[in-house]
Fold:
Amino acid sequence: MSIAELYHLITDPEQIIQTGGLILILLIIFAENGLFFGFFLPGDTLLFTTGLLCSTGHFDVSIYLLLVSISAAAFLGSAFGYYFGERAGKELLHRKENLFFKRKYVDSAYAFFDRHGGFALIMARFLPIIRTFAPIIAGMTKFDYSKFLYYNILGGTIWVFLMLLLGYFLGLFIPQAKDYIEYLILGIVIITWIPVVITYLKERKRLQK
Structure:
């Protein structure tokens, strides 16, 4: 498998589901929620597509199993991110930039977490890239772990349930939505990236004052 084919596999929600099933979904969600190189992986769109395909019969896994197992993957991913940030996160500040790491992502997440505190761990679940780095920043700043655990579980549950069930009920009530999944995914990408761009511009403007 070429690098291009591998990239397409791990960034295309339908490909992930059809090729790797539940196991690959769990690995992707785990990585995207706490491994610093997982920021480019599809989180929101993967959850939405999983729910949609589940309700239309194209992914034969119980919605209850999906809700529980994927929530657990999100919790564990963020917990690992916290541990990594606590143990070795400061090395990221001196890490050389490459395709899988950009210093500006850490800076944006750091500023976001600094402004919103623990609540940022809930808000960040709905913000691509920041979702990946927020738990790492929490570990780097030695944020109280009991509070982190609370916000991690609460935020992860809300995010997984909301995105999965959004896709599930859309497919349940409008089965033909499966035929327009590419457009639905594009819409979700645009909607989820709007607050990311706004947050980045606000933080940059604030830091320039």
Summary: The chain has a mean pLDDT of 85. The CA atoms of residues 6 and 137 lie 29 Å apart. The chain is about 75% helix and 0% strand. Residues 3-208 form one domain.
